[in-house]
Design goal:
- The protein is α+β, with helices and mostly antiparallel strands and about 240 residues long.
- Helix content is about 55%, strand content about 15%.
- It contains 10 helices and 5 strands.
- It has a 5-stranded mixed sheet with strand order 1-2-5-3-4.
- β1 and β2 form a beta hairpin.
- It is elongated, with a radius of gyration of 30 Å.
């Protein structure tokens, strides 16, 4: 036992050398140090990759916003529309232009707007298709339904209405000649219709619901930055 756990390294009668406890611990510490350095290096590489994706996402987000603004800036006021930089949502915010109250049928005025808007919208997005995961046509309502409805009844009635409206919009734009000619497969694979009912109402500065602004239709670009980050984290 002294040969194994002695305080110093000695040569046995057979000529073998035995490592002291202190030398053994020093060796193990070096191994753990190398492992720690390797893990830290991998973590830093992963962090840098995620940071690169985040920077690219920000730059791409800005580029899409500016491209949309350049294309549609002169149309926004007459369409009753706005572009949100943070969410990349193209919002149609004049409810009287979109649908009759409580109905899912497009007004003739909104049909004319969509005829002009959607082919140009797809042309702008064409440059950014590799980074686009999805375009959502989002339908939003106010929290109002009819007098005497409970909150639950109003919410689910508005859910059906908002879903019907976005499906109507998607069906209409997919039937446009420029879309069927040049973009149909991409639209079919990347554009979704979603109804949110009154879950995302717009509030005024006093925290009171702005019913008119809450009733809107949005075309929102979803980039694939989150997917890219998940790929990095998944190895």
């Amino acid at each position: 036992m002294k040969q194994v756990f002695g305080a110093t390294t000695k040569q046995s009668e057979g000529g073998e050398h035995w490592m002291s406890v202190s030398d053994l611990m020093a060796g193990l510490m070096m191994v753990f140090l190398f492992i720690s350095v390797a893990l830290m290096r991998d973590a830093m590489i992963e962090r840098d990759k995620i940071k690169e994706v985040a920077v690219t996402y920000e730059e791409n987000q800005q580029a899409i916003y500016l491209a949309l603004l350049e294309e549609f800036e002169t149309d926004l006021q007459q369409w009753g529309a706005e572009i949100d930089r943070e969410s990349l949502s193209f919002n149609f915010t004049a409810p009287e232009v979109l649908f009759a109250n409580g109905r899912a049928t497009l007004t003739p005025q909104f049909q004319v707007i969509l005829d002009d808007f959607f082919p140009r919208y797809l042309t702008v997005l064409n440059t950014y298709k590799p980074s686009i995961q999805e375009v959502r046509i989002e339908g939003h309502t106010s929290s109002r339904w009819n007098h005497g409805s409970s909150d639950s009844e109003a919410y689910f009635n508005n859910m059906r209405l908002s879903q019907s409206r976005t499906r109507t919009v998607l069906s209409y734009v997919m039937d446009l000649s420029p879309v069927k000619t040049s973009h149909y497969d991409w639209v079919k694979g990347h554009v979704a219709a979603v109804g949110y009912s009154s879950s995302k109402t717009i509030m005024d500065s006093n925290g009171v619901e702005d019913e008119k602004k809450s009733r809107r239709v949005s075309f929102r670009v979803i980039t694939n930055a989150e997917t890219q980050i998940r790929k990095i984290l998944g190895g």
